Fold this protein.
Amino acid sequence: MTTRANTTIHNTNDPHSTLISINVAAQTPLKLTSTNYVSWKLQFQTLFIGYDFLGFIDGSYPCPTTILPGTTTPNPAHTLWIRQDQLLLNAILGSLSPTIIPFIARAKTTREAWTILANTYAKPSRGRIKQVKNQLKQITKGSMGVFEFLRTIKAWVDELAILGAVVDDEDLLEKILEGLGEDYKELVRAVQARDTPISFDELHEKLLNFEASL
């Protein structure tokens, strides 16, 4: 949800003519930690694109002048820009873990805060990539249900993709089959004997049906 203020500037064709307040809990629930910057950034980028706010963080929509050009009249667009920028900065602050807030304590604009965070956390952590790969390598179905097993694997594969270490479909399916255990060896043999590769969705469906038969 968003709440829109009633204050608007005179140019009603301006897409930024209405203040928009971001509901942090609902729209940006992932809090930034020292290990999840890429995922955190993605949720804000999609939100900023949707509301046409990228200009506040990339500099393409700078703060308007305080006075209307060629006059001594205060520029209402300046005040509105400041207010909107502070609402966005507030949203970013609300999505940070407490230990990270001091890093941007001196930031006065959304762009300043965004730049500091990017410079600090943008490079994917090699340690995190290695950690996720190890988790993926070691996981087996064990006592988990099929749905939980596949959901866990898919979550780690998606995280690796975000970190720039994409797992191809063949390796993903091979990992799933390896981790199923003895109860599923009949299905595993059938899948491995296919002439054409099976898709993740099709394998998911077959595993659920097989689980139900067990």
About this structure: The chain has two domains: 2-121, 126-213. The radius of gyration is 24 Å.
